[in-house]
Amino acid sequence: MNPEYFSALESCISGAFFSVNINSKKITHLSDQVWAVTGYSSEDLKKLDFEKIKELIHKDDINKIFSEINHIIKNKLEESVKVTFRLLTQEESWVWLEASIKSNGEHLFGYIQDVSENKGLELGYMNQSSHLMTLMNAIPGYVSWLKSDLTYIGVNESLSTVSGVTHEAFIGKPYGFLSLNVDEKTENKTKLWLKKFSDNKSEKSTQTETQIIGPFGTRHFLLSAAKYGDQDNIVLIGIDHTKLKELEKEVETEKARNIHQARMAALGEMASGIAHEINNPLQIIISVGDEIAKNPLFKKPGEMLVRAGDRIAKIVKGLKTFSRDGEQDPIETVLISNVLKETIDFAQVNFKKKDVLLTIEPYDETIDVECRSVQISQVIMNLFNNAIDAIEGLSEKWVKVSVKDLGRDIEIAVTDSGPGIPPEIAEKIMNPFFTTKSAGKGTGLGLSISTGILKAHHGVVGLDETSKNTRFYIRWPKLQPNSTSQKSYRD
Fold it and tell me: 139-240: what fold?
């Protein structure tokens, strides 16, 4: 090509062409347009030796650019290689240059252009992305970005840390790929919620609550999802509000306990008055019965009168026991057989009235435990009443009581002839004010208050989900931590 034509062509291009002799490291050609790119004339740059030119390149880019050049020379690459670097201009400011370089074995040929504007946009985007990622990492929750097909684009540090999976390992994986580590039922429920949201093109944001059962225990989450971008990608934020849920539960339990205590106080006051009114004439009846029984002709009627009086006395005693709070009672060492016997004596009327067969499986009646016996009796009575109500409409109606010495703990279980409790109800049944009984028949406080009583005894109330019948149990340590109990075997 005619040099004049080539020179005219070069002047029409914003960048500058160059060639460098590989052996001498001297610039053999440089377009005049280099002045517009660097502020240096082509003649000025040609006069500089190799070391001086190196000094114009930013120290952070030196290794990168010469590594690429050595790679081109060593491998005799015919295709051009692009490399970006910073150069110090005549005005002593840094300019971003992009060089496209190739070699013919003797010379390096290339083209350089100013890419500062594009690089500034790129750096601005990276800086913006960095700020956004910092913001996402600062959110007190788990953040993930998902495509509309529910595959991961990215996650924040919190989610990566809690799952033990790196940010890179999330990318491209489907939502729910961690299901092996969490409860599959709740995970699938959340996945269906997300898919429904993704498929609904008119819905831009949504929220739900869920709980996840995994290796870190049961956690409650508030999930917020919102769509962004042209492809309806989804940002999903999960806020762990387990502590808030636990606090709400404690407030509800305390509210239930206060209601219960108020009722017990009113009932206890009434029961005390009734007992006082009944006891005096009752003692007269029993005494008269004893006198009558001394006469051989009336021995049997007299004994019947005494037994009836004793029965009334036990009912009155039970009424006084079960109608008071007992929370302030001291921890005492008692025979579990006495606690159970008193409770059953008082409950027998209800079992007979509802035509329910009550059986007690054989157990060691010499076992003693530390507890507030009034409260334990109230819990057992509540389990009895729940069982009777649950099987009321069944053709086969029975309730069995078992006592197990578990070594450190004592367990009392109440099993009824019912077929068990569905999982969706079982997970709510311990909550305050939740009841399956008809209006006016249940308050939903019994199991909640029982749970509080056993918690105060360092124990638990539980539903045995492995039993084919409905089986509730209470379990607590036979020796209470830090107790100063006194042996008090009650007759």
Answer: Beta-Lactamase (3.30.450)
